[in-house]
Design goal:
Elements lengths: L1 H30 L2 H22 L7 H26 L6 H27 L5 H30 L1 H23 L7 H20 L1 H12 L3 E7 L4 E7 L2 E6 L2 E5 L3 H13 L7 E6 L4 H6 L7 E5 L3 H9 L1 H6 L9 E4 L3 H6 L5 E7 L6 H4 L4 H10 E10 L7 H12 L4 E9 L3 E9 L20 H4 L20 H12 L3
Parallel strand pairs: 5-6, 5-8, 6-7, 8-9
Antiparallel strand pairs: 1-2, 2-3, 3-4, 9-11, 10-11
């Protein structure tokens, strides 16, 4: 009996933490700001577990039967939670209420499990052995969950199928206990039947997980979804409407093929043509290869290093025909070296000084991205830029988020760089901002070459800011405060309202 129930503790502990991780990850995908989402969800989940532990005191008879019933409920609620939340996201106005109700309900059920098991085992073990063994198995299960979730479950199964899998494990424990302790269980036929029906429902959900996600994403995105996958870092979605291909990462539009050339020409050419005969170029972010495509237009360039965190993105844009047609197979060029690493960590160990550095990170929607816009990052950048070199950073919209834009400018200037802010209009995004930085000051070059968007005459006005985008006071973004993330959330949250 001891071994059966201790193994059950290990399984339910693993399942309980997985539900918590799934909820936090899903909320960060759908609502943004991963730190806030994980913080509030962990708090609500633990509080709900406390309520569940307190409520367990009212179960005084048939404890084994109640434990089985709780396991079935946890399996059903936790197993179906991810699918329900994805399907309801576009249709429920008060989505956060539904999210926290499901988290609370799951937490209450999970909070009942260990107290019930401890009371069932109290006659089998003395108190010290009971506490040590129960919590040993509990913590080992939690460790396993925290390791396999990012490394195996999310990239291989995705959130929906992961939820169904661990729902099956919870109900599987209930069914196992029913079989092992059958004669000691009240309502054993009812419990067995409930467990079998629940296993069938969860198995159906596991098998149909891709279809559920397809339905959810069809409701979320205006165009047809032609590709979707969860990497260890983000949800990657490609949509297509006739010849227009769009890339979304965690629900945020990254580019539209109809006008991406405007964005990438404005990002690359003003900085590249300000450096005399650039040979070694570094791109941080930009795993889609579209900025690399523009850099390869310069015959003096000998080596391009692309550092992008997500190997799934660089692989996708190196292998899918419609995407390699879009980036002119840039990532397959012999001049290009692709490194899949965290740019912050990579810069710490980089010994090379580059003639030109192009930084194409996502917007600072959360603290993990916000660190790439801090003084700590720009000081590292200073060490990797040649004395006569120049760099450029994409800096969100100076129209929708002017304080965020000028915060980035102030942060760069605080790190001994001179800056040249400018902007360009990209229909898919509106007015978009960039900042060129170097040590000696920037002189607007005469744009050479044939481009779809940029011309020599249009470049000087891009460095002029009208009053609604002009400079305004903003703090410096440091690693220990990350004020930029708050600026960004406040400005984009209220833009257009």
């Amino acid at each position: 009996m001891q071994l059966v129930l201790l193994i059950s503790i290990f399984v339910v502990a693993t399942c309980g933490l997985i539900y918590e991780l799934v909820a936090g990850t899903l909320a960060s995908y759908l609502l943004g700001d991963s730190v806030t989402q994980f913080s509030t969800i962990i708090g609500v989940y633990l509080f709900s577990m406390g309520i569940g532990s307190w409520l367990s005191r009212y179960f005084n008879k048939n404890l084994l039967g109640w434990f089985v019933q709780v396991e079935i409920l946890v399996g059903l609620i936790g197993g179906f939670s991810s699918a329900l939340l994805f399907l309801l996201f576009e249709h429920v106005e008060s989505f956060r209420i539904v999210l926290y109700m499901l988290i609370s309900l799951t937490g209450i059920m999970v909070g009942m499990e260990i107290p019930l098991l401890m009371r069932i085992l109290k006659d089998e073990l003395n108190f010290s052995d009971l506490v040590s063994k129960v919590f040993t198995f509990d913590y080992i299960g939690a460790l396993l969950a925290s390791v396999i979730f990012p490394l195996l479950l999310v990239p291989q199964l995705g959130l929906v199928r992961t939820s169904f899998l661990f729902g099956l494990l919870n109900v599987g424990v209930a069914f196992w206990v029913c079989l092992y302790f059958g004669k000691r269980l009240p309502w054993r036929n009812y419990l067995k039947t409930s467990a079998v029906v629940s296993l069938l429902l969860l198995t159906g959900g596991f098998v149909l997980a891709d279809d559920i996600m397809a339905i959810s994403e069809e409701q979320t995105y205006p165009d047809k979804v032609i590709y979707s996958k969860s990497s260890p870092y983000q949800r990657i979605v490609l949509t297509r409407n006739r010849n227009n291909i769009k890339l979304y990462l965690n629900g945020n539009l990254q580019f539209s093929s109809t006008d991406e050339y405007r964005y990438h020409e404005a990002l690359v050419h003003p900085v590249m043509q300000s450096v005399k005969d650039p040979e070694n170029v570094l791109l941080l972010g930009g795993g889609d290869g579209l900025a690399v495509r523009e850099v390869l237009k310069y015959p003096t360039v000998k080596n391009i290093t692309l550092v992008d965190l997500d190997a799934e993105v660089t692989k996708l844009f190196s292998t899918m025909n419609m995407l390699t047609a879009l980036n002119d197979s840039a990532l397959l060029s012999s001049k290009v070296k692709v490194v899949n690493a965290d740019a912050f960590e990579w810069l710490k160990n980089n010994p090379v000084a580059f003639d030109c550095i192009i930084i194409d990170f996502p917007d600072p929607t959360n603290y993990s991205v916000g660190k790439l816009y801090t003084t700590a990052f720009y000081r590292l950048l200073h060490n990797s830029l040649a004395v006569d070199g120049a760099a450029v950073v994409q800096c969100t919209s100076p129209l929708a988020a002017p304080k965020s834009f000028w915060c980035i400018n102030n942060t760069i200037q605080s790190c001994s760089f001179k800056t040249a802010p400018y902007h360009a209009y990209v229909p898919s995004f509106g007015e978009w901002g960039y900042i060129i930085l170097n040590r000696n000051g920037y002189t607007i070059p005469t744009i050479q070459g044939s481009h779809k968007f940029l011309t020599a005459s249009m470049l000087p006005p891009m460095f002029h800011f009208p009053p609604d985008m002009d400079k305004r006071p903003a703090d410096v973004n440091r690693l220990n405060n990350q004020v930029l993330v708050q600026y960004f959330e406040d400005e984009w949250g209220s833009y257009g309202q």
